[in-house]
Amino acid sequence: MDDLGSATADAVVRPTNGKLDAITPALRRLEVAAGPKFRDLCRVQRELGVGAAVVTAAGDLPAELVVHAVVMTSAEPVTRAGVRRAAEAALRQADQWRIVTLATPPLGTGAGQLSLDDAADTLLGAVFEHGRSAAHPATVVIVVETDAERDVFEARLARGSPS
To answer: Does position 1 have pLDDT exceeding 60, yes or no?
Structure first.
């Protein structure tokens, strides 16, 4: 278990809404750790759609970059399909930016969002599928905050590649 803000990686994935706002307390802590200039990097002219991903500098985080993955908007709630699109977009950005090590939390979890089981299956499915054809990222680190999250992801990984 770790904190996304202190993850040792070239980039971290930050699940967001379409305005690139933090959507969980953990992501608000990430913003604080990234420093005051980071919030300025997260401004958009208009709301992005679910499944979009954009890359910014990481501010004061140990990682160099942040990949913002849009999992919800004001009009579209978190769904498994939307989380899958956001995960795929984040992974494509990592490949285009040649990010070697990418740290990500479970995407789409939290109050009123996906179950941890659905989030794990969705994220790992996207990671395994992406890894079949892309060189980057070479390593994806799933950063969990609780024993329950760790247990679910470890169980999914022990089963092998999701279909």
So the answer is: no
Q: How confident is the model at residue 89 (pLDDT cuts 50, 70, 90)?
A: very high
Spacing of C-alpha 114 from chain mean position: 14
- And the tokens for 147? 């024993």
- Show the 3-state SS of 54-101: EEEECCCCCCCEEEEEEEECCCCCCCHHHHHHHHHHHHHHHHHCCCCE
pLDDT tens, residue by residue, 49-66: 999 999 999 999 999 999
Residue 59 tokens, joined: 């501010």
> What domains sit in the chain, N to C, each tagged with a CATH number?
4-159 (3.40.220.10)
Task: Determine the distance from the C-alpha atom of residue 15 to the mean position of all C-alpha atoms in its chain, rounded to a whole number.
Answer: 5
